[in-house]
Amino acid sequence: MFDRRVAPNAISYNAAISAMGKGSRWQLALHLLTTMRMSEAPNVRSYSAAISACEKSSQWQAALCLFGSMPGNALMPSEVSCNAAISACEKAGQWQFALGLLSSMPELRIAPDRISYNAAISACAKEGQWQVALSLLNTMQAIILKPDEISYSAAISSCDQGGQVELALGLLNKMIPNNLRPDAISYSAAISACAKRGQWHGALSLLREMSELRIEPNVVTYSAAITACDQGGQWQLALDLLSLMPEARVVPNEITYNAAISACEKASQWQLALNLLSLMPEARMVPNKITYNAAISACEKSGEWQLALTLMSLMPEAMLVPNEITYSAAISACEKGGQWQLALNLLSLMPEARVVPNEITYNAAISACEKGGQWQLALTLLSMMPDAMLVPNEITYNAAMSAFEKGGQWQLALNLLSLMPEAGVVPNDITFNAAISACERAAASGSWY
DNA sequence: CAAGGTATCA
Questions:
Q1: Which pLDDT value is given to residue A442?
Q2: Cβ pair A215, A186 in contact under 8 A
Q3: Can you give the distance from the CA of residue A396 to the C1' of nucleotide B5 in angstroms?
Q4: What is the pLDDT of residue A449?
Q5: The pLDDT value given to residue A8
Q6: What's the average model confidence in pLDDT over A315-324?
Q7: Distance between CA atoms of A63 and A350, rounded to whole angstroms?
Q8: Which nucleotide is nearest to A13 (CA to C1')?
Q9: Burial class for A207, CB neighbours closer than 10 Å (0-12, 13-18, 19+)
């Protein structure tokens, strides 16, 4: 094709740009768009393919630049180019930009179509903007753009992200009356909504409903249902679902196993968690960072701090780099095992491992100090948080408060309590109980004055 | 030759 005798034409360039997009090579896609100019002017499809390439590589600014440069290149943006730009905003979590593009379409003399709305609904869904997503769905109906299965699934997903189970189920139930056929994706989104609220019963009902309607669940459906059982405290049911997958001819993947390992965590079933981890290679699955993090947490919840640290130490040979979640889970494991020195050691190793601790990491470390009776260290960690650009939250304050209480530091406890309002943290029962207890201990031991 | 929906870890 690049033989000088046969010049590539627009079609071959467009195909190449599209292929770069599928391989997440956005720079190469843009490079092709540039080199294309030497033989002929890129057309609307070239731009659409390039915008889509940027979208697939999460380069939303580049996508918007391309879209915005079309009129200057004597090209009228099409529905497709605009929809690709909306998708780029969606992938990057820029729901306001997605809505802005949708609303600017009429000025550009492009009528938004079903795909424009669906992409915008998805953008809102990803960011938990369920009210906006639902209003877009209503707008679609109002302007006689009949929402389809994808519109509904995206809207259900917005309710899922927003924790609105009832609304999610309501939308699912409206599909058939609207002559739409719910599929595995619509059901998976609804099951996920149940999972977020721990409604395992609802999730299993939806699975049953699927079999009545002859809708084949897929691996995502099962993974979501396993998570629903996990969140609902039904770890046995979660594992039952995993074991039922072969006869349903659904092949579990890494995510399914990760969800199942997570279910073992809540049940303090570290043996089962490690067993699942060990079964993965023979099922041709490669455990990833999330798998290890879930297994480390399972050990943590079971009080197996040594095993948790062993798992963490095995990550490099599995070519996995621990992240802040790994460290936080491992620090929590040390906390549960009364190993405050090891917990602090892990925290101190983070900078050289180029892992940035977050609030949760500090909270775990402060709790470890509290359990180890190290109120001074808890105070030191608390005071280090602003330097690390971290804002202590309710959990941080409560952990520090308990540390002061255990250490008989009633003045510090009361001082901390008094600082909470200006830090914008509302003390709760745990906070007050710890503070009161600190004072009672002081009074009982006569150290009040 | 271009555009839209589902699941996992502290």
A1: 78
A2: no
A3: 38
A4: 53
A5: 74
A6: 97
A7: 36
A8: B1
A9: buried
Residue A5, pLDDT > 60, answer no
A374 vs A117: CA distance, rounded Å: 56
Separation between Cα atoms, residue A220 and residue A14, nearest integer Å: 33
pLDDT reading at A320 higher than 90: yes
Whether the CB-CB separation of A320 and A292 falls below 8 Å is answered with yes
CA distances from A215 to A12, A130, A194, A293 (A): 40, 26, 18, 33
CA distance A371 to A179: 59
- Rounded to whole angstroms, the distance from the CA of residue A17 to the C1' of nucleotide B2 is 10
A421-441 confidence digits (pLDDT tens): 998 999 988 889 888 988 888
Q: Under a CB-based contact definition with an 8 Å cutoff, are residues A162 and A130 in contact?
A: yes
- CATH domain A1-110 topology: 1.25.40
Residue A333's nearest CA partner among A356, A352, A361, A373 is A361
State mean pLDDT over A158-169.
Answer: 96
Nearest-angstrom CA–CA distance, A109 and A323: 47
Looking at every residue in chain A, the average pLDDT score rounds to: 94
Nucleotides on strand B lying under 7 Å from protein C-beta? 1-10
**For residue A378, what is the enclosing H or E element?**
helix A375-384
Nearest to A346 by CA among A394, A389, A296, A287: A296
- Examine the pLDDT at A446 and tell me if it is beyond 90: no
- Measure CA of the first residue to CA of the last residue in chain A; give whole Å: 90
Q: Which amino acid is at A3?
A: D
**Distance of A329 CA from B9 C1′ (whole Å):** 9
A303-333 burial string, b = 16+ CB within 10 Å, else e?
ebbebbbebbeebeeeebebbbbbbbbbbbb
Lowest mean pLDDT of A21-25, A250-254, A314-318, name the range.
A21-25
Tell me, what's the pLDDT at A434? 83
CA A440 → CA A99, A406, A413, distances in Å? 56, 12, 12
CA A349 to chain centre: 26
- Give the phi and the psi of residue A259 in degrees, each rounded to 5: -65, -40
Nucleotide nearest to A19 (CA to C1'): B1
Interatomic CA–C1' length for residue A35 and nucleotide B8, angstroms: 42
Q: How many helices (H) and strands (E) does chain A have?
A: 25, 0
Two structure tokens written together for A234: 């039904």
Question: Could you read off the pLDDT of A210-222 as tens digits, one per residue?
Answer: 999 999 999 999 9
Unique residue bearing structure tokens 């294309």: A36
